[in-house]
Amino acid sequence: VQLQASGGGLVQPGGSPRLSCAASGSISRIDDLGWYRQAPGKQRELVASIAKGGSAKYADSVEGRFTISRDNAENTVYLQMNSLKPEDTAVYYCNAPLPYPGFVLYSWGQGTLVTVSS
Fold it and tell me: What is the Cα–Cα distance from 38 to 42, expressed in whole angstroms?
């Protein structure tokens, strides 16, 4: 399965873009799916994940502002981003986190750049 993120761009502070992650195959059997981001000069971090059953977890930095969802029928994972801040500027990726911190199931795609600036 290949995962391709899209939907990024230049967004004003406070904006609400939605990112999409399209999978080349079925995601229905994948336990966990997640959105990651890598800001300039920083390590990639997991910001949101969603289990097969729909339960979601968020990093403290995005809790209450971002919402992750998955559409197994469309093989797509979404990240609704609200109240964006300049510190949310990063390349956003999707992948399937494994139960071992830092490990993921698939190769990384190109990601989608979100730039928050006025």
Answer: 6
Residue reference for tokens 């949101």: 48
Question: What token pair was written down for 49?
Answer: 């994940």
Res. 11: pLDDT tops 90:
yes
Identify the bridge partners of residue 24 per DSSP, sorted by sequence position.
none
Dihedral angle of Cα 100, 106, 107, 111, to the nearest 10 degrees? -100
Show the DSSP H helices in the chain as ranges: none
For the record, the structure tokens of 39 come out as: 């800001």
Cα–Cα distance for residue pair 66/17, rounded to 1 Å: 10
- Residue 1's pLDDT is what? 85
Three-state SS for 35? strand
What is the tens place of the pLDDT at every residue in 59-76? 999 999 999 999 999 999
Instruction: Quote the strand ranges of 54-97, DSSP E.
Output: 56-58, 66-71, 76-81, 90-95
